[in-house]
Amino acid sequence: MREQYVNNAEALQALCSTLAGSEWLAIDTEFIREKTYYPRLCLIQICNGEVAACVDPLAIDDLTPLLDVLYDGSVLKVLHAARQDLEIFLHDFGRLPMPVFDTQPAAALLGHGDQIGYANLVKLLLDVELPKDQSRTDWSQRPLDEQQLRYALDDVVYLGQLYLHMRGHLFDRERLQWLAADFATLADPQTYYPNPDDMWQRTKGKQMLRGRQLAVLKGLAAWREREARSRDLPRKWVLKDDVLVELSRRMPRDAAGLAKLRGIEPGLIRREGETLLKLIAEATALPREQWPNDGGRPVPLTAQQDAMVDLLSAALRLIADQHQLSPLAIASRKDLERLVRGEKDCVLNDGWRHSLAGQALAGVMTGERRLEVHDGELRFTSA
Questions:
Q1: Whether residue 97 has a cis bond before it, omega within 30° of 0
Q2: What are the residues whose beta carbons fall under 8 Å from the beta carbon of 329, sequence distance 6 or more?
Q3: pLDDT in tens, 190-243
Q4: What residues act catalytically?
Q5: Which residues have C-beta within 8 Å of that of residue 365, sequence separation ≥ 6?
Q6: In order of start, what are the domains of the chain with their CATH numbers?
Q7: Average pLDDT over the chain, rounded to whole?
């Protein structure tokens, strides 16, 4: 396989002429994000099985030839744990390179674990040990040395081989179509832009708050999210989680009240104090019916429900074994608890997980399906 480092327009044009018309392209990126909200693209790796290249976007002003290849809808783009890479393309270039094939969920459908890493998958399927010594590299620094380029190239050199291996096995097991829902999620731009009004639910320490306090948290967290995006700063650089929670808990009414709070710096009060107080006042004025409902911790399962979860766990293990999958690739115990509680937001209610296991488990709960022991083996039977 030919390998190259591409850092000028002429070399990029030549590479793209070679890549054009490929059936598939293995793609990866290297980026940094410690000081920004959005990831900063530092390197694009690409391979079609014959040529592998590291394209340097920091050295090339016009990436149009490469984008023409990447956004060709007739070429399948192969990635591993694709979400962060696709987020970069969406933010930097305005759209997602489709269609895609993500080898991480594909690996789960072949029984290799729910969140297996790329290096572990390469070792497992190709028996190749990849070095991990560049995982903390600052990819914005130039020049890149040989070890860094080798590390980056390896991320796509073996990716295509993984795809071809898994595609064949998924086809043989009639599981390729199972991935449609996963890939549809990756194709939806909303996947990469969380709703600011939902960000309070991700705030560490929110379980300490109740009622009107949660309304304040929701307003402050939404403001922080919009500020972080507009200023391209990490959320915690705008306002840390513990400060959000303390503001929501105390609900200060004036600058003096802000100054008394732990973690609130004088500079923050000067810059944002008026805005924060306005947001707090608006949230505290909301009627009760507009307060968000955290739900708190789930109500503990009854003894009967807990026993039902144990029964479903056994049924899930049986289903997973029949399909040569890890049970965790299908559902966790918490997912089973959600199913028993009747919660709609459960992975077993949608997509291939519903077809494969959700329907059968629901049948066990209603008594339409049973688990019985025959000749020392556990089996499903119809009631």
A1: no
A2: 108, 109, 111, 113, 114, 320
A3: 999 999 999 999 999 999 999 999 999 999 999 999 999 999 999 999 999 999
A4: 28, 30, 85, 151, 155
A5: 308, 312, 339, 340
A6: 2-192 (3.30.420.10), 196-290 (1.10.150.80), 303-382 (1.10.150)
A7: 93
